[in-house]
Amino acid sequence: METKIINGYTHVKYSPLQFSEKEMLERSKSYYELLNKRRSVREISDRPVDEQVIHHIIQTASTAPSGAHKQPWTFCVVSNPEVKKQIREAAEKEEYDSYNGRMSERWLKDLEPIGTDWHKPFLENAPYLIIVFKKVYEMNEGEKANNYYVNESVGIACGMLISAIHNAGLVTLTHTPSPMNFLTEVLNRPSNERPFLLLPVGHAIDEVYVPDLERKSLKEMAVFYK
Predict the structure, then answer these.
(1) Which residue, among 60, 186, 202, has the nearest Cα to 133 in the 3D structure?
(2) How far, in Å, CA of 51 to CA of 34, rounded?
(3) How many helices (DSSP H) and strands (DSSP E) are in the chain?
(4) In CA terms, which of 22, 141, 190, 205 is 20 to 30 Å from 126?
């Protein structure tokens, strides 16, 4: 492996992927077609999933770029039925309050096509819950140390996590009960971590229906400056 010292630190020579123009076009199209099949699925089976698959999915997410390479994330993986039950009970309490007073009428109206309510059975049915925590700072021997671009870094990692889940043939949905502080308590996380996102992960049940929604076209969401 070829190396070079820059600012006193070892850098290794990067070997970029190289494809022909035709291969690039084919690969970019096939990857889009794969991810375009992704949907948020709430009806998740309790069918087991090999834990090694979850390991690989999380390792994929951890390849995300982060500010100053601080990797300010912790992925908490819950398969214990009692802990999942605790999380469901606490989440449904917050969700009930949201659907019955916290959310505006407009918000509730916007949710109607999705068909959601405060009941969250997937939090117990799914074989795994992955709760992503962001590290707002590091603790080194009792001293605080900065992390940088924490929300951006963790958000990118979560996007890669969701795509890795779909790539493995599993389903998930982004669950963000508000507030989420109960997750810190239930999972006994340290004071420098904050809950960012909860993802139930598993197989879809045998027959699932999802909202008939359209994604924005390229023309509607992109602007090209030539």
Answers:
(1) 186
(2) 23
(3) 8, 7
(4) 190
Q: At which residue do the structure tokens 């992955």 appear?
A: 130
Determine the Cα–Cα distance for residues 156 and 215; give it in Å rounded to an integer.
20
Q: Give the pLDDT confidence of 215-224 residue by residue, as tens digits.
A: 999 999 999 9
The domains of the chain, with CATH numbers, are 42-206 (3.40.109.10)
The tokens describing 111, both together, are 């949710």
3-class secondary-structure state, position 85: helix
Judge whether 195 and 184 are in contact, CB under 8 Å: yes
Give 140's strand partners. Answer: 143
pTM of the model: 0.95
Q: Are strands 9-12 and 3-6 parallel, antiparallel or unpaired?
A: antiparallel
Give the sign of the dihedral formed by CA 225, CA 36, CA 110, CA 150: negative
Cα 197 to Cα 98: distance, rounded to the nearest angstrom: 17
